[in-house]
Amino acid sequence: MSGLSVAEDEVDDVAVLAPAGRIDSTNAKSFEALVLQKVQEGKTGIVMDFGDLEYISSAGLRVVLIAGKKVKAEGGVLALCRLSPTIRDVFEISGFISLFPVVETREEAIAAAKG
Fold first, then answer.
1. What is the three-class DSSP state of 56?
2. What is the DSSP letter of 107?
3. Which of 18, 66, 71, 111 could form a disulfide with 7 if both were Cys (CB 3.0 to 4.6 A apart)?
4. pLDDT at position 115
5. Close Cβ partners of 8 (under 8 Å, ≥ 6 residues apart)
6. Any residues with CB less than 8 A from the CB of 80 and at least 6 apart, and which?
7. CB 27 within 8 A of CB 1
8. Contacts of residue 82, Cβ cutoff 8 Å, sequence gap at least 6
9. What SS3 state is found at 77?
10. What is the pLDDT of residues 34-80, one digit of tens each?
11. How far is the C-alpha of 37 from the C-alpha of 33, rounded, in Å?
């Protein structure tokens, strides 16, 4: 994924994805495939840890929205954590901040994703 690396972890049956770098039109499809693979594997609790994310474009926001809808359709929760002020601004301006649990720490996000 050009300009993007994603660390994967699993805690208490919650998939934790930590993208680092940029999510934009050049790599959004690859990131989407990874997230949807987790849902297909039966992960209904997913955390996106944005602590190392530098930039997210509208294509990246679309991936988050699609992932959230898929997870919700399966009865689960997509939680976001560690948003930098810049990334938080993007989510606030787009209105996406109200669509998902957004918390400070990974631990809080895992608890939110577990329901």
1. strand
2. H
3. 18
4. 80
5. 15, 16, 17, 18, 34
6. 47, 48, 50, 64, 91, 100, 101, 102, 103, 109
7. yes
8. 49, 50, 51, 104, 105, 106
9. strand
10. 999 999 999 999 999 999 999 999 999 999 999 999 999 999 999 99
11. 6
